[in-house]
């Protein structure tokens, strides 16, 4: 029997746990079952208590104290420990039916998704290639305030593309915290970031600062603090990154405002499509409805 789930990931501060809470609330309002898994060994505050919490197995604080590790090393150790104890996940998830949406809340250290094989190994255990046969998709969150700095936005987009390649999962990429930019960026402008291309760099607001510095001092050292902070030294690099993303055409974004129920519902519909959730549910019997209407008409 298939199971269905979504892995919520992205950089620190992107709003992953907040999105998970909004998703759980939306599912409960629509009388859908969900199973919330927290895999961030440093997380403490939750709007909804996790059904399964990695801290019941190992916490970041314990790993750092007992192994003498820093935050990043401790996090990697926690995941290595989890991989050595996968029964912790298997025993909790295996009894779930296909009516549940399994929501997996991940840490914000993007190196786990981009260049360390820990999370890909975990994904293989969860999906059809492993023991649990879960139809998974990844929801990669990128904070919408990145759109103010085009180079920063493309760096975030590149990390999303890297995660897509590493994890080999259907991806739903999301611009989160839209409420923070709706008053400073027009809707028309925001639409340009849905399918990123390198033309966004042609009118980058941060380039004006670099141009001003250059005009004031044409002989300025490109490695000077002013040039670096203005982004002038990285203009060619930024364009090369943007061209790479444009060439692959792999990344597009959905807009998320967790305070808007329709916005959360729209993201969920894309997740359901990616994991083919509705195709596995029992169809309604339209003949029963037709018969009921016919009998009512006769009584009238």
From TrEMBL:
Stretch list, region Disordered: 279-300
Annotated keywords: GTP-binding, Hydrolase, Nucleotide-binding
Pfam families named among the record's database cross-references: ATP_bind_1
Subunit field text: Binds to RNA polymerase II (RNAPII).
Domain of life: Eukaryota
Family: Belongs to the GPN-loop GTPase family.
InterPro entries documented for this protein: Gpn (IPR004130), Gpn3 (IPR030228), P-loop_NTPase (IPR027417)
An MF annotation (GO) of this entry: GTPase activity
Record's protein name: GPN-loop GTPase 3
Biased composition (Acidic residues): 288-300
Role played: Small GTPase required for proper nuclear import of RNA polymerase II and III (RNAPII and RNAPIII). May act at an RNAP assembly step prior to nuclear import.
């Amino acid at each position: 029997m298939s199971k269905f789930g979504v892995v919520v990931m992205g950089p620190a501060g992107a709003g992953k746990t907040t999105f998970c809470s909004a998703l759980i609330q939306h599912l409960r309002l629509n009388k859908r079952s969900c199973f919330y898994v927290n895999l961030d060994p440093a997380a403490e505050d939750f709007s909804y208590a996790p059904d399964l919490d990695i801290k019941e197995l190992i916490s970041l604080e314990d790993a750092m104290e007992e192994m003498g590790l820093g935050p990043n090393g401790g996090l990697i150790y926690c995941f290595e420990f989890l991989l050595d104890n996968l029964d912790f996940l298997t025993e909790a998830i295996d009894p779930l039916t296909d009516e549940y949406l399994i929501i997996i809340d991940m840490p914000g250290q993007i190196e786990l998704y981009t260049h360390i094989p820990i999370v890909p190994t975990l994904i293989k255990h969860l999906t059809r290639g492993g023991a649990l046969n879960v139809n998974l998709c990844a929801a990669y969150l990128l904070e919408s305030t990145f759109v103010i700095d085009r180079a920063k936005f493309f760096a975030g987009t590149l990390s999303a593309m890297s995660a897509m390649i590493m994890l080999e999962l259907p991806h739903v990429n999301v611009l989160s915290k839209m409420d923070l930019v709706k008053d400073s960026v027009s809707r028309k402008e925001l639409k340009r970031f849905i399918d990123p291309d390198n033309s966004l760099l042609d009118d980058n607001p941060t380039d004006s600062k670099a141009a001003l510095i250059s005009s004031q001092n044409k002989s300025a050292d490109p490695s000077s603090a002013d040039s670096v902070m203005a982004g002038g030294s990285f203009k060619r690099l930024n364009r090369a990154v943007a061209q790479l993303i444009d060439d692959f055409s792999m990344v597009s974004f959905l807009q998320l405002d967790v305070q808007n129920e329709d916005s959360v519902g729209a993201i969920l519909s894309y997740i359901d499509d990616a994991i083919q959730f509705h195709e596995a549910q029992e169809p309604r019997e339209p003949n029963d409805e037709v018969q009921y209407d016919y009998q009512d008409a006769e009584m009238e």
